[in-house]
């Protein structure tokens, strides 16, 4: 914000001069920030409405990496920092929940995280939900992003051009992961694996009854396991 503000000719100098007083002839840094915020990041209903409109347009699509979703949300919140800094953790979680309504597994995952936090009497944060969603995606899709990031016509036209890169599913060249003939097979292999979070240790990938942390399951622990 400061870089953008300093590029503004005339107005910025006027704001800087307003920060100079008899006690602070060279200006007071905190006053500079205050004046710049008032000019370039006004706290008003227009800013809040604009922020809400942008947040409502953010949606996670099935197969898309969740870290991209959180990056988009943070970008908007930082853009409207003057109003977003007052949001509670609960309000931020509501933004995330709204963005994943069309992807049932993530909606269910967030509900599960809420229940887990309540059981452990902990405050659920956006960072905790992001970590759980990223872990879930890696277990389900690996590090691949199976959903194209662009919805516009230009993106569709690019998709018609021969792809010369390497597929993340089979490793072969000439097609993308979402077009891979082995994609269905790889998903079938993963079917049946529990992708939720353990209520005992809090880690993803196994159920509470199978948790190695429990003494009843010590015979299931692999060699070299450290609790």
TrEMBL record:
One of its GO terms (molecular function) is zinc ion binding. Residues 206-227 have a biased composition (Basic and acidic residues). It holds the Pfam family zf-CCHC. Keywords: Metal-binding, Zinc, Zinc-finger. It comes from the Eukaryota. InterPro entries: Znf_CCHC, Znf_CCHC_NABP, Znf_CCHC_sf. Residues 204-227 are annotated as: Disordered. SUPFAM superfamilies: Retrovirus zinc finger-like domains. Residues 166-182, 197-211 form the CCHC-type domain. This is CCHC-type domain-containing protein. The lineage of its organism: Eukaryota, Sar, Stramenopiles, Ochrophyta, Bacillariophyta.
């Amino acid at each position: 914000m400061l870089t953008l503000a300093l590029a503004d000719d005339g107005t910025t100098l006027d704001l800087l001069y307003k920060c100079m007083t008899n006690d602070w002839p060279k200006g007071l840094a905190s006053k500079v920030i205050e004046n710049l915020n008032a000019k370039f990041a006004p706290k008003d209903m227009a800013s809040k409405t604009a922020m809400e409109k942008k947040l409502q347009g953010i949606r996670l699509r099935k197969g898309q990496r969740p870290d991209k979703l959180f990056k988009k949300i943070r970008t908007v919140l930082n853009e409207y920092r003057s109003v977003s800094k007052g949001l509670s953790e609960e309000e931020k979680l509501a933004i995330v929940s709204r963005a994943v309504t069309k992807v049932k597994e993530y909606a269910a995952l967030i509900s599960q995280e809420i229940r887990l936090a309540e059981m452990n009497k902990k405050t659920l944060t956006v960072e905790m939900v992001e970590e759980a969603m990223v872990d879930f995606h890696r277990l389900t899709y690996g590090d691949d992003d199976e959903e194209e990031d662009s919805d516009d016509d230009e993106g569709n036209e690019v998709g018609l051009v021969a792809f010369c890169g390497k597929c993340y599913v089979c490793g072969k060249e000439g097609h993308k992961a979402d077009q891979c003939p082995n994609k269905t097979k790889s998903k079938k292999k993963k079917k049946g694996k529990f992708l939720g979070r353990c209520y005992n240790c809090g880690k993803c990938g196994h159920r509470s009854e199978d948790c190695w942390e429990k003494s009843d399951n010590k015979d299931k622990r692999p060699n070299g396991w450290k609790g």
